[in-house]
Amino acid sequence: MKKVYFLQTCDTCRRILKEVNLDGFEKQEIKANPVTVTQLEEMHKLSNSYEALFNKRAKLYKAMDLKNQEISETDYRQYILDEYTFLKRPVFIVEDEIFIGNSKKVIEKLKERIG
C-alpha cells in the first residue's frame, strides 16, 4: 500500500508532493476527508506513537496552551481525531513503513524508499 495524508492549503505539503514521485500513491486531503479512527490506528501501528504523529507547530497547540499540560498518548490520539491540524504532515505510508512530517531527513529517506 502507498498512501499520503496531506493538507492542500499547506505550502510545505504542496512543495513536497511536487518533489516526490507519487506514482501509485492514494492521496487523502485531511481537511476535506478527515483521518478515520482506523486510519489513525494504522499510522500508530507503524509509528508506535501518537505523539510522533502530533503536530506541535499547529496554531491551536499554542492557542490551547497544550505545551504547558501533561498530554498522554490517549490525549494525542483524541486531539488528532478531533482536529485535522493536529496531524503532523505530510504522512506517507509505503508498504510497512511510515514517514511523518516534513524534515529534510524524513523526505530524503522517503525518496530513497520509493526511488
Walk me through what this model shows.
With 115 residues, this protein is of the alpha+beta class. Helices cover 43% and strands 15% of the residues. The protein has 6 helices and 4 strands, in the order E-H-E-H-H-H-H-E-E-H. The chain has helices at residues 11-19, 37-47, 50-53, 59-63, 73-82, 104-114, and strands at 2-6, 26-29, 91-94, 97-100. It has a 4-stranded mixed beta sheet with strand order 2-1-3-4, sandwiched between helices. A hairpin with a 2-residue loop joins strand 3 (91-94) and strand 4 (97-100).
Biggest pleated sheet: 4 strands, mixed
Helix content: 40-55%
Tell me, what's the shape?
A: globular
- Uncertain stretches: none
Structure annotation, total helices: 6
- Derived from helix and strand composition plus strand pairing, the structural class reads alpha+beta
The Cα radius of gyration reads 14 Å
Number of strands: 4
Q: Which strand-content bin applies to the residues?
A: 5-15%
Average of pLDDT: 97
The termini sit apart by 15 Å
How are the strands of the largest sheet arranged? 2-1-3-4
Keywords:
4-stranded mixed sheet; single chain; 115 residues; alpha+beta; 4 strands
Tell me the layout of helices and strands.
Elements: E1 2-6, H1 11-19, E2 26-29, H2 37-47, H3 50-53, H4 59-63, H5 73-82, E3 91-94, E4 97-100, H6 104-114
Parallel strand pairs: 1-2
Antiparallel strand pairs: 1-3, 3-4
